[in-house]
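task queued by scheduler; priority normal; single chain, no ligands, no partner chains; default sampling; output format set to structure tokens
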Amino acid sequence: MKSLIVSSVLPKEVKALLYLDIDGVLNQHRPFNSGWCGMDTEPVHLVNSLLGRYPTLGVVLISSWRYLIFSGYYQLEGLEKLLATHGLDIMGRLVGWTDADESVEGWESMPRNEIREELIKRHLRKNPHMPYVVLDDTIGVSTVFQVTINGYSGLTANDIRLADSFLQQQGVK
């Protein structure tokens, strides 16, 4: 795996973070004939509505889709464009990703939820006092402001209302 040097300094206009998973959040884990999952229209629309309400919300990718960067297929801007082709209003909003699962000591024997939790907490330590919300279908990740999505139905309007509430609790406007 290539080593990536990414600045942990966020753009000054970013005042809050959306930690975004894709599979199970923006789709229902239903692959196309190609074997790959895309994104479903309604959950994408819901995320876009959240991004529209919070113009200072930056997106941090926690999805396995971030391996498209780690493998060298994409850089940040290219992945942002790929996500935009699926309907996400993400141009200029993708500010980073969590580290690779393999960067967590003992990852091979850890449950997926513990790895995901450690990676999110590690990213938050680099950005202390930054308001955030997590949209993820991984059960058992215990970050404070997480909306746990039912991965077989995908993101719902109720999930977005909860995410909205979490951002408001933290003073995000």
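post-processing summary
- The longest helix spans residues 112-126.
- The two ends are 39 Å apart (CA to CA).
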